[in-house]
Design brief:
The protein is an alpha/beta fold. The protein has a single domain, classed as Aldolase class I (TIM Barrel, Alpha-Beta Barrel), CATH 3.20.20.70. It has eleven helices and eight strands. An eight-stranded parallel barrel has the order 1-2-3-4-5-6-7-8, surrounded by four helices. It is globular and about 50 Å long.
Length: 317
């Protein structure tokens, strides 16, 4: 029996949301069997939900048929294990976003996650027009706006507040680059908006953040959930060592060696840590972007074993 999913609102949207990675075969087509396994693997882990799209999910590399298949599988398998799912519907035009919204609603998505169209930088009135038009298409299905510099602009707090007042189904934001000062500025303009960062719960939760859209869950979901729960309960003294270990892992095991030295993009790095964490998604990214290697996986595990052994997933302990 499928568990009933609680509707997502500005009040109920909280916690740890894990990014889904798409397994590709050697023809760069979706491996549906492995993707079903990947979605279901998050059942019972303590995450509040899962989501498709974004950089981790390589939304930019999906044709219409692939998007539809990904959406169907994600919704079916997530709901089967009692998890809500947000479907990423980002695209280069309102028309394409609206088409993807229709597919997502048909598949019974619990919410939609969307970035601004990013080829030409939108003006403020164009931002408003975009959100209003896609909200109309979405109807009662809630929207989460992915606020990212990759859209060539951020949405300033005042504009976010205006949109929140005008569009009641706009329930939250994802902005992993948001610092505490900016978080407070957003909440001043839109006090009930669910504002999310990444895994930086130790800094963001006390300032009013609701949770994080996370990729480190791919390596060790239990530790990310543990950190969120400690911070959400106000147990900051207990949370601090784990927060420091995750911060060190993020920069010393991922950002410095894989971004700055190896020149890999997020999609490749998230695959490396997911494979190290026992996932079945594989290392293959869609061309033309470079993929990680087995050597990267081994170095990541070795670094963690030496420096933050408390973060090792159970199968590596």
């Amino acid at each position: 029996m499928t568990t009933r999913i609680k509707p997502l609102t500005r009040k109920t949207l909280t916690g740890v949301w894990s990014a889904l990675i798409l397994p590709w075969n050697d023809r760069d087509e979706l491996d549906a069997r492995r993707f079903k396994q990947e979605v279901r693997s998050y059942g019972g882990t303590g995450v509040n939900g899962i989501y498709t799209g974004g950089t981790t999910g390589e939304f930019y590399a999906q044709d219409d048929a692939t998007f539809e298949r990904v959406t169907q599988i994600a919704c079916e398998q997530a709901h089967a294990v009692g998890l809500p799912v947000q479907i990423g519907v980002s695209a280069l035009s309102t028309r394409t976003v609206r088409q993807r919204i229709r597919v997502a609603i048909k598949a019974k998505a619990d919410a939609l996650q969307v970035a601004l169209p990013f080829w030409l930088e939108l003006k403020d009135d164009e931002v408003k027009r975009f959100i209003h038009e896609i909200a109309a298409e979405a109807g009662r299905t809630p929207l989460i706006v992915y606020v990212t510099g990759r859209s060539k602009r951020k949405i300033v707090p005042q504009l976010l507040g205006e949109i929140a007042d005008e569009v009641p189904t706009f329930i939250g934001t994802k902005d992993t680059g948001l610092d505490v000062k900016a978080l407070k500025a957003v909440l001043k303009e839109a006090p009930d908006l669910a504002v999310f960062g990444g895994e930086d719960f130790f800094e963001k939760i006390p300032a009013g953040g609701r949770g994080g859209y996370c990729s480190i869950t791919g390596f060790n979901v239990a530790k990310v959930v543990e950190l969120y729960q400690l911070c959400d309960a106000g147990r900051m003294k207990e949370a601090k060592p784990l927060a420091e270990a995750l911060h060190r892992y993020l920069y010393e095991a991922l950002v410095n060696p894989l971004v700055k030295e190896a020149g890999l993009w997020d999609s490749a790095i998230d695959r490396i840590q997911r494979v190290a964490g026992g996932g079945v998604v594989g290392l293959r990214c869609q061309s033309p972007y470079r993929s990680g290697t087995d050597a990267h996986v081994k170095r990541l595990i070795a670094w963690c074993r030496k420096n933050t052994p408390e973060l090792l997933p159970p199968h590596l302990v």
